[in-house]
Write a structure and sequence with these properties.
Elements lengths: L1 E7 L3 H12 L3 E8 L6 H14 L8 E3 L14 H4 L22 H11 L4 E5 L4 H9 L9 E5 L15 H4 L2 H8 L5 E4 L1 H4 L3 E3 H10 L5 H22 L4 E3 L2 H9 L4 E10 L10 E4 L8 E9 L1 H10 L5
Parallel strand pairs: 1-2, 1-4, 2-3, 4-5, 5-6, 6-11
Antiparallel strand pairs: 7-8, 9-10, 9-11
Helix pairs in contact: 1-2, 1-10, 1-11, 4-5, 5-7, 9-10, 11-12
Length: about 325
């Protein structure tokens, strides 16, 4: 059983990652925090509770609204052309009985959960690392309570998607990522080096629709609709006519099945200034590297296995 704390900015790919985790028999989600990115933090929380409702889970999972600005500067606004005006491909999800919390700060909630489950929790981040950095700032001892952290973000060898060298989650708050990199936590980065190689195609969606269990039909129908919008955005961004990269879902799959990716440990920091390089992950392979901690970077992936693992939870009974 993998016990998880998840941090999201729930857009389309976050929602698919969440549905995978919510339907996986060996995943227990103890809490979810939200931040700005694809949408604002409140919209991300609203989307998250509706995705939980859609999954037909019986357990109430606490969802806490987190940071709506990066550590420095201001949030640049939603990415509607990729994720839709509401963040989930403009699909209208029904509001159910679940609600999100605003009575506690995300960093306090994260620390509270880590104290409750010391060295048991895998933190999975699908957006910026602002909430995690704020927890580390306020509770430096929290890093010793984390089992491991798996994050979607960054790139080492692949081109960036918001600049020549930077990926959106890191570029959105490079100071937060750099601070988290310096904590010494067991961190695995699942970035564009592997997500761009893992493509969800229309035929995969059709397979899920054909073979999904009765319980999962509402989730699969939602994914089909949301992915129509998302793949259109991917067509513009990635020049792909009938597929999209698996960004957040691949990170979630790797958190559950680590052998799907091959990693390389490198000392790494994040560039926090510069016109062209802000948000770039800088790794140092020299014999005498920069002062930094070793970070595990996913550089290879078994893409077919990852797709099959993602789809399989929707036809399990």
């Amino acid at each position: 059983m993998v016990k998880m704390l998840i941090d999201v900015d729930t857009g389309v790919d976050d929602s698919i990652a969440l549905l995978y985790a919510l339907n996986h028999p060996e995943v227990e989600i103890v809490g979810i925090t939200t931040g700005c990115g694809n949408v604002d933090a409140v919209q991300a929380a609203e989307n998250t509770v509706r995705i939980i409702e859609l999954s037909n889970t019986k357990k109430e999972i606490p969802v806490v609204v987190g940071a709506n600005q990066p550590l420095n500067g201001t949030w640049e606004g939603p990415v509607a052309w990729i994720h839709g005006e509401n963040g989930v491909g403009n699909v209208l999800l029904e509001k159910g009985n679940f609600s999100y919390r605003t009575d506690i700060k995300a960093e306090d909630f994260l620390y509270e959960m880590l104290q409750k489950y010391p060295q048991e929790l895998t933190i999975v981040t699908l957006g910026r690392l602002t909430n995690i950095a704020m927890m580390v700032q306020k509770y430096p001892e929290s890093t010793k309570l984390v089992k491991n952290l798996v994050m979607m973000g960054g790139t080492v060898n692949a081109p960036g998607n918001v600049s020549p060298v930077a990926e959106a989650n890191i570029a959105g708050d490079p100071e937060a990522c750099d601070q988290v990199f310096l904590t010494g936590m067991d961190i695995t980065v699942v970035g564009l080096d592997v997500t761009l190689k893992t493509r969800l195609r229309k035929k995969h969606v059709e397979q899920m629709e054909t073979y999904c269990s009765e319980r999962c039909k509402p989730a699969v129908q939602y994914m089909k609709k949301a992915l129509e919008y998302y793949m259109n955005g991917s067509r513009v961004q990635n020049y792909t006519p009938d597929n999209c990269p698996l960004h957040d879902p691949l990170a979630m799959v790797a958190a559950v099945v680590p052998s799907i990716v091959k990693i390389q440990k490198r000392k790494a920091r994040v560039e926090c200034s510069g016109t062209y390089c802000r948000g770039m992950i800088v790794t140092d392979l020299r014999e005498k590297p920069i002062e930094a901690e070793y970070i595990s970077f996913a550089l290879e992936v078994d893409a077919e296995r990852a797709i099959n693992e993602l789809m399989s939870v929707f036809w399990r009974e």
